[in-house]
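Page header: ASSEMBLY MODEL / two components / 373 residues total.
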Amino acid sequence: MAMEGESWPRVRAVLAEIFDRDAEDILPETLIMGDLGGESVDLLEIAVRLNADFGIPVDEDAAFLKSLRYLLAESREKGIEPEAALRAAYPHLSAERCATLAREAARPQAAPLLCAADIAAYAAAARK
Amino acid sequence: MRLTFRGPVLLRGGGCELGRLLALALREEGAQTCSDCRSEEGRAACAADGLTVLPPAEDAAPEALPERCRAVCGAYPAHFVDLRHSRLETLLAGAAPDELEAWAAGDVAERARALRAVTRAMLRTRFGRCVFVSSAATERPAPGQTLYSAAKAAGEALFRGVGIELAGKGITACAARLPWLELGRGRVFLERRGEAARRAMPAGRLPDPSEIVRALCWLTSAEAAVVNAATIPLDGGLSSRKAGA
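Prediction written out in full:
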């Protein structure tokens, strides 16, 4: 997962500080919950830091993919293509990432899929 | 013992008599205080005491509190004391529907919004100390205090919740239940019922406001962080005593 732009190093620094890790250990594909042991209070802290450091309003639902499973279930009920539903809800994510999320989240017992790159993508889009 | 304050102390509802006494005591302990008052009367009383007051703002929403504190003190609040409460005391069945809506908005929702805003600002530095000034009437209200006690119970729950949710991020909170005090609206009540109130106290006397202020000062300080997600009676034993005994 390649990352460009100035948002990535800054988001990585925020994540490293919050989770007390070396920045080099945080990769774009690092899972916030699975790899870093993140909890809801950590997401709150990330939101506060993004708001303060980047000067951007943070929609926590979108930034942290909180409604991912709900959106996928709703898309199934309404007969909407899951990837299209995710692209509409998460315009900051690439089509490729939305497709991956739709595929991975459909697996039984799938772990939370939010990764560092998702947050960086949100921050980059919000700053534009 | 010199108490530690790691940044400004924001006193919401700081224009009341207790708030002003507390702010003065905190300043004596070396704290930088900032009082948020709803009324011009409260701001004038604080100014007369030489206290720092948040000026009236166009955006007086609770969400603006941390920024307003920073504008005056140069830093976001590190300590927060919430003393604000409306004057509404009425029988529940006697309250008008719009009074109930205003009560819920003012005494419950705005408190939650203020606490949310302040604790989010505290997250930036991973330190915060929050104290809610509650009442012995929370658990045992007199007729006419149903809404008052319900709002105090809600406030206690909000501060307890912050202590549970954010302690891992260095932000702790507690509530303190106070008895009758010869201050503000308590003085009016005690003029009529003072003797009965004193008889209800195990010591046979009401606490002096300075005793309560000293305890609140400590609870507000960094040293009291271990008192977290808890409601502490500062009532001289009033709530522990069997009624009429």
